[in-house]
Specification:
three-stranded antiparallel sheet; about 120 residues; two-stranded antiparallel ribbon
Length: about 120
């Protein structure tokens, strides 16, 4: 599992913390109840935030599961394959496709490059 970076995690009742700043989760044993389920320790905050959500629910928001990582990797690979295919389409055929199907391959190519951070 990997910690998601820069994701805001809801702790309940209008409380939030950034996923990569949460350093510990401690289930509340004494006086546990609605609004008091988990002590959330956050970087640079001296006292824990008392969350109304369980540690398991918070943890699900903090980490990426291996399947999510695989899905994201597969999607990026698919975009790269599509970009490679678009690259083989010449300018005359691109114009024809745009005219006939109103499909702008140049626009797709640019957007995919932005997503993949390719220039």
């Amino acid at each position: 599992m990997e910690i998601r970076e820069n994701v805001i995690v809801p702790l309940g009742y209008g409380k939030y913390a950034r996923s990569d700043k949460i350093i510990a989760l401690e289930p509340i044993e004494v006086d546990r109840g609605p609004g008091r389920r988990t002590a959330v320790y956050v970087e640079q905050i001296p006292n824990p935030i008392i969350a109304s959500r369980t540690e398991h629910a918070i943890l699900k928001n903090i980490v990426q599961t291996p399947q999510e990582i695989l899905d994201a990797t597969a999607a990026l690979e698919l975009l790269q394959d599509f970009l490679d295919d678009i690259d083989r389409v010449g300018p005359m055929l691109r114009k024809s496709i745009k005219k006939e199907a109103d499909l702008d391959l140049n626009q797709f190519e640019q957007k995919i490059k932005e997503i993949l951070a390719i220039s």
